[in-house]
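Section 3.1: Structural characterization of target chains.
Under the original work plan, the team committed to producing a structural model for every single-chain target entering the pipeline before any wet-lab resources were allocated. The record below documents one such target. The sequence was received from the expression subgroup and is listed exactly as submitted; it comprises 298 residues.
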Amino acid sequence: MRKHLLHTLFLLCACLPVQAQTTALQRQIQDLIRDADATIGIAVLTSGGESFAINDTIGFAMLSTFKFPLAMAVLHQLDERGTPLDTALLITKADLLPDTYSPLRDSCPEGNFRLPVRRLIEYAITLSDNNACDILLRFIGGTGVLQQYIRNLGIPGITIAADEALMHRSPEYVYLNHARPSSATLLIDRFLQGNLLSPAHQQFLKNTMIATSTGTDKLRGMLPSSAVVGHKTGSSDRIHGMKIADNDIGFVLLPDGTHYSIAVFVMNSRESDTANAALIARISKLVYDHYSPATRSQ
């Protein structure tokens, strides 16, 4: 009995420094965001199960970060149907809406061509193409199907009810897609566990996230060039000077084989775009320095 009690006390004491360090990291982040003229939510979840969240009772406008669960749902449907990733979809001129961000439309404005699902996902994730996003949404059956997919994963706190076309109609529609920070990191962590998609589709999406070229000044911004980061950004236009959202969610693969998921949502910001990005980058650097094996060994 005494031996069991001593063992239990040892385990409790061993956990205390980790909790103290995590609390210290949270205090650093809270100090960093305290004076920002914005509503900011942050969550972190490690592969070892350590987690924390700040402002996690709020549903933050997702903007293009919802393209990550969309890509998961598309690949899940391909797995279910036995449909190849290189299946080509017909893209018409009507699919290429003019008043939205779309490198796809800019490259082929007249439409009437075929493009593999693979390339549409790459456009939607790495370039955050809004037309590619809505084409993929229609391919799986709409926002209701995407919402049901997330619900079936058992992940609460994420609501997706609008496509990009609807969000561009009026500012209030931008808030229809929202997520709690911890829900976003839980979704990413579930993806990284590798049991939701076929191995080929899992690796494809992971590589696509790592290849993302938007928002290089956000989660990636202050990390070492050697850091392996996969992420999906999301940002809005400004309404009367206010930025509805400036977000970045993703994962960092660490050299020791561990990883962590991170979500930073900046909502209703009166700060500049540069200041928003710098804030996300500083938060990301604090988290990286806390969990990096090199830092822990010092």
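The first helix runs from residue 2 to 33.
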